[in-house]
C-alpha cells in the first residue's frame, strides 16, 4: 500500500526547496496535481492547492496561482486560509489594495466565526489599511488585536511586529500602539 495523502504532501513540502534548487519546477507541479487528483476530500484538495498556488507564485505564474485559489474557494467558500491567500495575492502579486481589502474583510468574518487565524487576518488587514492610508481601519485592527484572546483550541500566529514601524506618528493612538507593543514583546 502506498503512502497516505498527508505523508506524500508533507514529503513534497520538505523536498520542494531541493527541487527548486535543481530547477525541477515541473516535477513539483506534477506531484501537486497528482495529490489534488488523489485527495479524498475538500480539506486534502485545498491543502494541496494551497501548496500549488504558493508554487505558482514562487515561479511568477500569478494567473495560475489566482486560478488555484479560486478553485479552493469554489469548493470550500468558508476556507479562511484560502481567503488569506486570496487577500495576499491581491495585496502583493496584483497590488490591488481594493480587492485585498475586500478579501481580508471576508476572511475576518470567517476567522472570527471559526476562531481560526484571527490574529493573522488582523495583521494582514492592518498592513493593507496602513498601505491604503485607512488609519481608522488600522486603528480598529489594532484594538481588536489587543483585545483578542484566542480560545485554547485556536490555530493562530504570534503577535506580529513588522507593521508597527509602518504606523505614521499621530495616525493611531500612541497608548494603543504601546499596549500592543508590550503584548508583542512578551510573546
Query: Helical content, roughly?
Result: over 70%
Please report the first level of CATH classification, the CATH class of the largest domain: Mainly Alpha
Domains, number: 2
Radius of gyration: 18 Å
What oligomerization state is this entry in?
A: single chain
Structural class: mainly alpha
Total of helices: 9
CATH architecture of the largest domain: Alpha Horseshoe
Shape: elongated
Helix and strand element order: HHHHHHHHH
- Strand count, sense and closure of the main sheet? none
- SS elements, strand count: 0
Task: Measure the end-to-end span.
Answer: 44 Å
Low-confidence stretches: none
Average pLDDT, all residues: 94
What percent of residues are in strands? under 5%
Structure report:
- This protein is mainly α and 187 residues long.
- It has 2 domains: 1-76; 78-187, Serine Threonine Protein Phosphatase 5, Tetratricopeptide repeat, CATH 1.25.40.
- 72% of the residues lie in helices and 0% in strands.
- It contains 9 helices and no strands.
- It has helices at 5-21, 25-38, 42-58, 62-75, 80-93, 97-114, 118-132, 135-147, 174-186.
- It is elongated and about 55 Å long.
- The chain starts with a helix and ends with a helix.
- The mean pLDDT is 94.
Give the helix/strand layout.
Layout: H1 5-21, H2 25-38, H3 42-58, H4 62-75, H5 80-93, H6 97-114, H7 118-132, H8 135-147, H9 174-186
Helix pairs in contact: 1-2, 1-3, 2-3, 3-4, 3-5, 4-5, 5-6, 6-7, 7-8, 8-9
